[in-house]
Amino acid sequence: MSEQVIEPRIRGFISLTAHPEGCAANVREQVEVVRKAGITGHLGTVLVIGSSTGYGLASALVSCFGYGAQTLGVCFEKEPEESKPGTAGWYNLAEAHRLARLDGRTFETINGDAFSSEVKQQVVDALRRLGPADLVIYSLASPRRKDAAGTIWNSTLKPIGKPYTGKGFDLRNDAVTEASIEAANDEEIASTVKVMGGEDWADWVDLLLREGLLAQGARTVAYSYIGPELTAEIYRDGTIGHAKEHLEATGHALDARMGAAVDGDAWVSVNKAVVTQASAAIPAVPLYLSVLMKLMKERGTHEGPIEQVVRMFRDHTGPVATPTLDDKGRIRLDDLEMQPDLQAEIAGIWDGLTTENFRAQSDYEGYQRTFHQLFGFEVPGIDYAAPTEVNRPLV
Length: 395
Hints:
Elements (H helix, E strand, L loop, with lengths): L2 E2 L5 E2 L2 E2 L4 H16 L9 E5 L4 H14 L2 E6 L12 H16 L3 E5 L5 H14 L2 E6 L5 E3 L5 E3 L9 E7 L4 E7 L4 H11 L2 H12 L3 E11 L4 H4 L6 H24 L2 E6 L6 H4 L4 H15 L5 H13 L13 E2 L7 H11 L7 H4 L2 H10 L14 E2 L6
Parallel strand pairs: 4-5, 4-7, 5-6, 7-12, 12-13, 13-14
Antiparallel strand pairs: 1-15, 2-3, 8-9, 10-11
């Protein structure tokens, strides 16, 4: 046993600590959402690449606890060491494993670099035991990638063509600011595509096809984001958006290959903006999310990752679903966020936001609370003054 009191150490968009019991409570709450969703149908085996947080974790939970799938996840998390706590993703999965074991369900995790040949081979070996995958979810969100040749690529958040100057937000000081970012060069654009584009997704799918580990009629989905015009210059029209365009083009190519090989399908799902550590690092996005959360809560349309993934499986990618696609062949889970009247209301508020008035115009308290909860803090019902066991295994 190794119990200790875990205190939050959050600086801007970086958390240096995670609370095991808070993370566990978050997972239990998500599983309860799944159990109450009235899900029908069954999946045999589901592979989730990037399974420890956010949309990937939600996908693994819906697969296991909603559709009864043998769920295999891949992630890269820091496990506890003696009295040193692990990461939030580790504790999320430790609780998911515990709940699955109690229910007699199969939930397995391979912890390692999903870009590496070694981890890919471990997945192949596991699927030979579990059976071919009916569904493969690709939900990696990494800032860097080491490819098979040993080259390291780093992603960059920059505009393309011209510098960005616009509204920003300082999470350390809770202040509306002006952000300025220089334009990316060609090397930075190419490197971002290498990390966040579709190349690794294609590597995974092609490997599973070669190994005969995709079931007949298998489906694969990769997650993406577009966002509003307010963030387009720095996001969708920038380096990350360029990589997402590559991801979407890859999806069309994979759809053709899977259709020919196993009568399968490949899609990109464009999801709603949610609070993540990665999104917090993008200028203006915490401010945009705070306004968005306020207005969507008022409309009763606010969703977190688990609600969206339930909807995606139910309406688009599950065993009894036929997807509805946009004119570019994408699933649009951001449909509620991108309602024209909602975006017009946000745009009408946006220019007038200042350090003095942004709290009244947004749900910044809700944003902060959700961000802290990513790491197990500010979760109702948790006694943060009490010691908690930090050594929680993935078994």
